[in-house]
Amino acid sequence: MSATTQAATAPNPAVLLTPAVFALDCAAEVERIGQHLRTSLAAMRKRGVVLGLSGGVDSSVCAALAVHALGPEKVQGLLMPEQDSSPDSADLGAAVATQLGLRCATENIAPTLAAIGCYRWRDDAIRTLFPDYDDAWKSKIAIAGGSAGKVHFFDLVVQAPNGPEQRARLPLREYLQIVAATSFKQRIRKTVEYFHADRLNYAVLGTPNRLEYDQGFFVKNGDGAADIKPIAHLYKTQVYALARHLGLPAAVCHAAPTTDTYSLPQGQDEFYFTLPHAHMDLALWAHNHRRPAAELAAALGLSEERAAGIYTEIEAKRRGTRYLHLRPQLVEAVAEVCPEDAP
């Protein structure tokens, strides 16, 4: 296992804090993950895997790893567009499926989302700030304050047809309602994945990388639900390295991470993380390896105070999203079913 894929127990000042800490033997890692996939499926008595293809690097790498380990005939890809998702996402996801030779089905989830009120609940919250908002407008949520080391809050950004972007600070109630409504998207996609998994006797692959998994950037019982998460131990930088090693399309290997959840373009660093993914990767690695804030500051060109604040943010997100990782809480362990729960 690469030293970059496991938590350190003590700092090693001899290792310079540069992107070189993410060096990975890609060929060996592909084989290791492949063996894990095969062993896991055998233990689950499943015949293959299902995963959603978003066109992003994480799902594309997971698909390529699964094809390498199992063969394309045992991998079912799913494209699940809705009214706010970018057409480019479906096109790139389809291109990845074609390149890998795996089966791919398209399930448009927009009618389901409309039926359960996803768009209605979201739009009702938006109209408390922008009363004229309607289906012709576009919108997104943007984090504010954090990138400058200040207290986090969120802005609502909207745009009328042919008009300029408008921005207003989101009150907590409206923020929670918009996030709850848009979380329907991840949960419905996961429902579709499990339908296909059940009909094929397949397992569902989850696609979070280490940064997302560690910092809780996923929806509980949505994109956080899966039977196997093959890249949750890999930093995003390493996932990009695997994408290049596996020969995925250049558009995948060089695309900036996005949420593809809101109708206005939205980067992950705009919605959740306060730094670009490469810097967040380095900050998380440095924190995991107990590197002092001054060293991170020098590596990223920040003040030591800001670097210390990033470490604080990492811990705060871990505390705040611990709930997402929890299994259902039992009054007492049922050891006959889950021996690991026994005291």
Question: Your description of this structure?
Answer:
By secondary structure, this protein is an alpha/beta fold. The chain has one domain (about 5-340): HUPs (Rossmann fold). It is built from 14 helices and 7 strands. It has helices at about 25-45, 55-70, 85-100, 110-115, 120-125, 170-200, 210-215, 235-245, 250-255, 270, 275-290, 295-300, 305-320, 320-325, and strands at about 50, 75-80, 105, 140-145, 155-160, 165-170, 205. Strands 3-2-1-7 form a 4-stranded parallel beta sheet, sandwiched between helices. Strand 5 (about 155-160) and strand 6 (about 165-170) form a beta hairpin. Helix 1 crosses helix 2 (about 55-70), helix 2 (about 55-70) packs across helix 8 and helix 12 (about 295-300) packs across helix 13 (about 305-320). The two termini are about 30 Å apart. The model is unreliable at about 1-10 (pLDDT under 50).
Strand content: 5-15%
Q: CATH homologous superfamily name?
A: HUPs
Average pLDDT metric: 91
Please give the share of residues in helix: 40-55%
What pattern of helices and strands is seen along the backbone? Answer: HEHEHEHHEEEHEHHHHHHHH
CATH class: Alpha Beta
CATH topology name: Rossmann fold
- DSSP strand tally: 7
Distance between the termini: 30 Å
Overall 3D shape: globular
> Total number of helical segments?
14
CATH architecture: 3-Layer(aba) Sandwich
Q: The biggest beta sheet, please?
A: 4 strands, parallel
Q: Give unreliable regions as ranges.
A: 1-9
Radius of gyration, CA atoms, in whole angstroms? 21 Å
Structural class: alpha/beta
